[in-house]
Request: fold
Amino acid sequence: MSEKVLMKGNEAIAEAAIVAGCRHYFGYPITPQTEIAAYMAKKMPKIGGTFLQAESEIAAINMVYGVSSTGKRVMTSSSSPGISLKGEGLSYMAGCDLPALVVNVQRGGPGLGGIQPSQSDYFQSTRGGGHGDYHMIVLAPASVQEMAELTVKGFELADEYGITSMILADGTIGQMMEPVSLDFDLKPMPEKPWATTGTKMAREHNITNSLSLVPEELEKFNFARYEKYKKIEENECRYEEYMTEDADIILCAFGIAARVSKNAVNEARSKGIKVGLIRPITLWPFPKAPFAKAATHAKAFISVELSMGQMIEDIKLSTECKVPVYLCNRAGGMIPDPKMVMDMIEKVKAGEN
Amino acid sequence: MNYKRLTLLCGHYGSGKTNIAVNMAFELRKQREKVAVADLDIVNPYFRTKDSEKEFRESGIRLICSDFASSNVDLPSMPADLYSITDDKSLSIILDIGGDDRGALALGRLSEKIIEENDYEMLMVINKYRPLTRDAQSTLEIKNEIEFASKIPFTGIINNSNLGAETTAEDVLDSLEYAEEVSKLSSLPIVMTSVESGLYDALKNKISNLFSLNLQAKII
Reply:
């Protein structure tokens, strides 16, 4: 008998979260991520967990803040406009160094936009999302299997560093169905001596709080937090390289755009054009090393995105602008197809010769 | 298959109802002149029978569907010509219903007339490789929830057990026992086993009432 099950990307996130020990889900429905909430609503009551449909996204993220303070694994999920509403809560959680998993299954924007897939929340998520000096770990799955794996990883990293992990998916990966194995090597959950679990008159009060009355103190917290971010940047960059070693043209893409790009790499190679792909899996921390390495031999980069080219800044910073970066994109809910990427490859190649 | 005037496809979310509905419509069109597909999915704005609108038109199959299906307007709405399903008895119709009990609610206001006319099959599509219907017991739970919401009792089962593009003939054969158990516990016949057309030849001598599916186009 097969060990795999057939799941939608959104369902894979929900089930993987349960496997990772998450028993608290708070959310407010929005397409195209509603299956996460629907799955949790069906499953949580059966396993002694909590599913709660909050009155708003703002309420949901603050419930996440509360449960996280008690040391439990907790999550919320939404899609682009809903994540904007959660921005304040995300910033408060960062100010308290609280771990949590937040899922953004992006749709086209800005504003209410549409319900078709998009990657246009790249800036919002990689630069923090809310106000203040902070970051989230941002994970970009490119398959239903990765939706599950990165959910588990997201919880583990969140607990390890005291940070919010965000799964930055898009409507396509959320909605597509693929076989998934839910067999994970789980790390044991770390101790959380800071959790507000009751003193039992045996210790000092634990307090989760993002308000500092003394600016000198607040500055100290911010410097310390950025020491932590430095460690994350050193240790947690993830990426996939595909046929980059001898490549003249490097495609850069994450999520669904990386799947399209991989097809284009194969087609280009069959025509004798040396093309490779770098797929960042962590968008923050951005994996600068493979880009810097590729810039020593590649003649051009093409960023393939479902946005107006939001990743280009990070590519240029990573390569110190040594090589031109072109954009091949669709926006507003549209997806580039392999032919469009192939046309761009040929155009760039012609320009290079 | 021997079609009644109305063929209703219900089942767990993502069990494969829409692909079966599309293929049934084309088969039914070969047998009858006036055929329609009713897309009554109020759960999912994506992957609708409406996605095959062009092919239906070319084959002379009428589509009964909300104007907002497969659009950016995420409205769980009913088609304007909903009542042709029960009122126009010259039509043979495949009804594609949304997943789970939430989707089956769409049948609520049609159920009385459908049962009164009594020329229908109410088929439950099952897939043992879906995480919430991995065994007969959990499948029956969903069956009961759907019957409660739709107010129409099931008359048969379609075994559509698959693992998407990775499905092997073995996976399908391994699901037969599960389908038999669902059938036994519910006293419903297995009216067909459906497989992707690429697996049809490998299985046609091993499974009776095998139905070949051409899948709706996928983007990537």
